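Human:
Class, as today's exercise, you are to examine the entry below, and be ready to discuss the fold:
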Amino acid sequence: MKKNDWNEIYWNEIDTVFLDMDGTLLDLHYDNTLWNVLVPRHYAEARAIDEEQARAVLFSHMSAVRSTIEFYCLDYWANFSQLDVKALHEEPAHLLDYRGGAREFLGWLHRCGKQRVLVTNAHRDSLAVKDAHTGLTKRLDAVFSSHDFGHPKEDDAFWRAFALAHGFDPTRSLMIDDNENVLEAAGRAGVAHLLIVSQPDSNRPTRDGLAFPAFNHFDEIMPDAYNGSAHD
């Protein structure tokens, strides 16, 4: 698939669709609220400091561990912050929602006989909370967390381990994510079809100048979704 040719997806060449969760299937507004607002607020209260100081401490450490498995690990952040991070996941649960057309897209993939595989950096505890409120996993054929492999999806080591576990044919696979670094790693692993979400958080502007073919609403990539036939 060439850059900016997202409307030229030849679905008859794709058997497996790898799907990110946060910012791809689910609205990233939930995670951004949790990590950018609520965790700093609770950290500030626990340390008797103001929220700006709390953000400075937390965000500095997040930058230091970004693109490592620790960045996505609830146990790591619970230990660092001394907060019950899993319990905090419930506070903004009313914000958990599918991105535009995601449910319909998953149903369409099923009708078309495509394998729907969740490949997420989310910790299993975070996944459990989100699944409890959205019923996401019942719409999928397989679910993998990068924590199962000890490496985040941005790391080539993840894709080597994942290939052994899943046994997918990369030449007949599509990866959809909101993270350019993840898609670059998937491409290095041989995944032939790569798409990026342009607006992961519905409360933030659409991103421009992305390095991969981009879309926002899932109906943009399933033009025949509502009559149940695949585009080829």
Observations:
- The beta strands are 16-19, 115-120, 142-145, 173-177, 193-197, 214-215.
- The helical segments are 29-47, 51-65, 74-81, 85-88, 102-111, 124-134, 156-166, 180-188.
- The radius of gyration is 18 Å.
